[in-house]
């Protein structure tokens, strides 16, 4: 008998290459925003100016940092309150969206998100803040952007290496959705289609970095991945990556890209339905083999050592992560297992090393 509960988040999505400025103006008018705060990291300011050329921000903010330090959030919140902001427009990647969410979490201000990477944060009601080298995440509908504007042209300046890592972060959302605490058949269907779109799109992006079709497909897949993740919740993969990012300030997308195949190798033999779905998404008899083939095609990041993570910190990372691992994980993840998993990921070891732990 099929029985489950599924939540679908209310959000408006506008998708179209070259349409960001026009769609943003239309959304601002529709929402009746009068006092706008435009958030964009300094590196994205020129891009944000193009996107926002048809609106008139009251406040432009560029103090953005990955993993959203609580001090950075506090300053931005104060500035938004002082300017009496009634709508926040974020233009950029997950860190930029995350800062907008930090403001909304306290004030309830509405967000229009214009993503320039494949992070997916724009389509979730998940927030994250880092304080004293500890990243805390939560779920609150106030942080869900009311509108998301996708424009593949905005991603063409994203370097290939970061495009690959960001897209693999999207695939990690999909894979984690197959065994997260609230997984259901709708999440699994979205995740499967998300993996197909992301894998196909990323291969085209690598072959034709300046082309729009591959980036459109990747953006579409990233949205599906985020919707699945928002409903299914955070699984083993994300709990580990939140520690690696928040505590050790490892780069977000690259960390997810490195950890994904190791978490998949650890779990898949104990999750036959997820294994079948992953294999089907990769059109492969073995989902892990399909994932490994994609990594080879994309020349993807392979080890935590390459991200300058210190092997000596693994015991500490295990101690921090262990209490957050969901009991619903298909395979028991105790301290010894997590240590072996992180050690293999640090070395860039063959996946079978984790599979046989």
Describe the protein's architecture and organization.
By secondary structure, the chain is of the alpha/beta class. 52% of the residues lie in helices and 11% in strands. The strands form two sheets. The chain has a six-stranded parallel β-sheet with strand order 1-8-5-4-2-3, with helices on both faces. α2 links the parallel β2 (36-39) and β3 (59-61). α9 (252-267) packs across α13. The two termini are 34 Å apart. The model has no long low-confidence stretch (mean pLDDT 94).
Strand order of the largest sheet: 1-8-5-4-2-3
What share of residues are in beta strands?
5-15%
Taken in chain order, the helices and strands follow as EHEHEHEHEEEEHHHHHHHHHH
- Tell the overall outline: globular
**In whole angstroms, how far apart are the ends?**
34 Å
> Major beta sheet, specifics?
6 strands, parallel
- Average pLDDT, rounded to a whole number, is 94
**Uncertain spans, ≥5 residues at pLDDT below 50?**
none
Number of helices: 14
Characteristic terms for this protein:
globular; 357 residues; two-stranded antiparallel sheet; alpha/beta; 11% strand; six-stranded parallel sheet
């Amino acid at each position: 008998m099929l029985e489950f509960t599924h939540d679908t988040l209310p959000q408006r999505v506008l998708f179209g290459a070259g349409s960001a400025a026009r769609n943003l103006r239309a959304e601002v008018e529709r929402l009746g925003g009068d006092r706008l705060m435009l958030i964009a990291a300094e590196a994205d300011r020129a891009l944000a100016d193009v996107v926002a050329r048809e609106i008139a921000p009251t406040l432009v903010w560029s103090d953005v940092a990955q993993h959203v330090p609580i001090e950075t959030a506090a300053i931005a919140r104060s500035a938004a309150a002082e300017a009496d902001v009634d709508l926040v427009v974020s233009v950029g990647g997950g860190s930029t969206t995350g800062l907008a969410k930090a403001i909304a979490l306290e004030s309830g201000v509405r967000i229009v998100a214009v993503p320039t990477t494949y992070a997916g944060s724009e389509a979730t009601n998940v927030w994250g803040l880092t304080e004293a080298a500890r990243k805390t995440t939560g779920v609150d509908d106030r942080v869900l952007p009311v509108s998301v504007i996708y424009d593949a042209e905005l991603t063409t300046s994203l370097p290939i290496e970061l495009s690959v890592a960001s897209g693999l972060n999207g695939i990690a959302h999909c894979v984690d959705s197959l065994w997260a605490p609230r997984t259901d058949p709708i999440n699994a269907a979205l995740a499967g289609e998300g993996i197909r779109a992301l894998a196909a799109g990323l291969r085209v992006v690598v072959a034709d970095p300046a082309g729009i079709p591959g980036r459109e497909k990747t953006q579409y897949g990233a949205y599906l991945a985020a919707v699945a993740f928002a409903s299914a919740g955070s699984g083993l993969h994300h709990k580990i990556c939140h520690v690696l990012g928040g505590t050790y300030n490892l780069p977000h997308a690259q960390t997810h890209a490195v950890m994904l195949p190791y978490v998949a190798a650890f779990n898949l033999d104990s999750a036959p339905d997820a294994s079948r779905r992953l294999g089907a998404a990769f059109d492969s008899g073995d989902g892990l083999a399909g994932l490994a083939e994609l990594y080879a095609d994309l020349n993807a990041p392979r080890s935590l050592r390459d991200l300058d993570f210190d092997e000596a910190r693994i015991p500490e990372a295990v101690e921090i992560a262990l209490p957050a691992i969901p009991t619903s994980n298909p395979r028991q993840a105790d301290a010894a297992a997590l240590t072996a998993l992180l050690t293999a990921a640090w070395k860039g070891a063959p996946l079978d090393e984790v599979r046989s732990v």
